[in-house]
Design brief:
Largest sheet: 5 strands, mixed
Distance between the termini: 45 Å
Length: about 475
């Protein structure tokens, strides 16, 4: 179901319940008004009946027939009132009660007619009229009392019913909100999580069943984007690595040139002096050639190891040795650029559980950035230490270059953000940030324009990892 349909359905349900409450209230209050109207009519009838009974008393007490017209007038008044309000009275008290009231009035009217048709009243006629009037008065008073009780009961029932309706509407609203919007909120949280992960260089898709609504379409688009970004990200990593290799190759070519020159000179000397060389001298010359050849092989092997794509291979490692290896990889580049290198390695540091090649890649990237920040030479330092408070192993890469402007620092690890203009891809630090995050570590930067930049990496020690397990 689409999101717009869910919202419409939720609103329709709420409107239906409001309409039900309105219909119930309207019906109850309409009946209540009828009953109140009857009570008013009944009060008026009782008042008229009371006056009629008073006339009746005077009639029998003083034997004055002038009270009979008054009784007849009251009867006519009561009959007219009952006839005018017939429907409302029947609706309020029911047709049975109405018929009883009407029958009582007719009996009383019949007794009055007997009195009007005779000159002398017998005791029997007097008693019959009194009894009929008493029953009529009692019936009317009883109906009024019952109707008052009915009104009070209806008010109480209506209040209770409205409370139950309110509770029902509240439950339906909460339930509807939960069922209609819980999945939507879950999808939004998944989108938020994925967006944050993308910012950190993690392009994993949103897992789970995708709803067939607008949010489902958004999630599908995000998953497609993650897939595409992941593919492009791998390509850019390779491109970044090739760019780094290009920089490293310049230094390697320079470094290979030295042993090649030595081999060439030794070979020329060996050929020129071969006849005059003693066997031990010849052996010494060949030993020099072998050493220089091994030196070239080692340089080429280090370069190949760095350039090969490798699967994640976590293991216990010495952070000091990783720092030495990384510095060794860029040492030739440092020499060409006239940059001095320093190693300040902490003693008795605990091991770390890392992918050695990935951490070396991060350190090489930071050292390469340091070289770019010092075109006129300077000093780059690698320091390692243990942060005793957190039991983390810390690696600091510091340069004395141009530094980074404060407005750029918050975005320094964002993908495609670069301070090098068209000369940088803006991926090196983003990739490094993602690698350190995958190692459950942190990487931060401190910089001051004109004085230099320091990158601080913290990695959990292997001792700390064991404690958590």
């Amino acid at each position: 179901m689409k999101l717009v349909h869910k919202i419409i359905l939720g609103n329709v349900l709420i409107i239906v319940f409001i309409a039900l409450v309105y219909a119930f209230s309207y019906q109850k209050f309409d009946l209540l008004l009828d009953k109140l109207n009857f009570v008013e009519i009944a009060d008026s009838l009782n008042e008229t009946l009371l006056g009629m009974r008073l006339s009746e008393k005077n009639l029998f007490l003083y034997k004055d027939k002038s009270d009979l017209p008054l009784i007849r007038e009251d009867l006519t008044k009561i009959g007219r009132a009952i006839n005018d309000e017939r429907k409302d009275i029947i609706r309020a008290v029911g047709e049975g009660n109405f018929n009883q009231l009407e029958s009582g009035l007719k009996r009383y009217e019949l007794e009055v007619a007997k009195l009007e048709g005779t000159e002398a009243y017998t005791q029997e006629m007097e008693d019959a009229l009194r009894e009929t009037g008493r029953q009529l008065r009692l019936q009317s008073a009883t109906m009024v009392r019952l109707e008052r009780q009915s009104v009070n009961r209806m008010i109480s029932d209506s209040r209770r019913a409205l409370f139950y309706f309110f509770c029902l509407v509240l439950v339906v609203a909460v339930t509807t909100t939960y069922f209609f919007f819980s999945k939507m909120f879950k999808s939004l949280r998944g989108i938020e999580k994925t967006a944050n992960a993308i910012c950190e260089g993690n392009f994993e898709k949103i897992e789970g069943k995708i709803a067939k609504d607008e949010l489902g379409s958004v999630i599908g688009a995000i998953n497609s984007m993650c897939e595409e970004l992941g593919s492009r990200h791998e390509q850019l990593i390779k491109a970044r690595k090739l760019a780094s290799l290009g920089v490293l190759t310049a230094g390697v070519a320079h470094e290979i040139g030295n042993p090649l020159n030595n081999i060439s000179m030794v070979a020329q000397t060996y050929l020129e002096l071969y006849e005059n060389l003693k066997p031990e001298d010849r052996l010494e010359y060949m030993q020099i050639v072998l050493q220089e050849s091994e030196r070239i092989r080692k340089i080429v092997q280090d370069l190949l190891d760095f350039s090969k794509p490798k699967e994640a291979d976590f293991g216990v490692a010495d952070i000091n040795q990783l720092s030495r290896n990384s510095l060794k990889l860029v040492q030739n580049m440092l020499n060409i650029s006239g940059i001095e290198s320093r190693l300040e390695l902490g003693e008795r540091l605990p091991p770390v559980y890392v992918d050695q090649h990935k951490i070396e890649e991060v350190l090489v990237n930071l050292l390469t950035n340091a070289v770019h920040a010092m075109p006129s030479g300077g000093t780059v330092s690698i320091r390692t230490k243990l942060e005793e408070r957190s039991d983390n192993v810390v690696v600091e890469v510091e340069d004395t270059g141009a530094g980074i402007s404060p407005e750029f620092l918050p975005n320094i690890f964002d993908p495609f953000f670069s301070t090098k203009g068209t000369q940088g891809t803006g991926l090196g630090l983003s990739i490094s940030y993602g690698i350190i995050k995958k190692h459950n570590g942190t990487i931060n930067v401190k910089s001051e324009v004109g004085k230099g930049t320091t990158f601080v990496i913290q990695l959990p020690s292997y001792n700390k990892k064991e404690k958590k397990q």
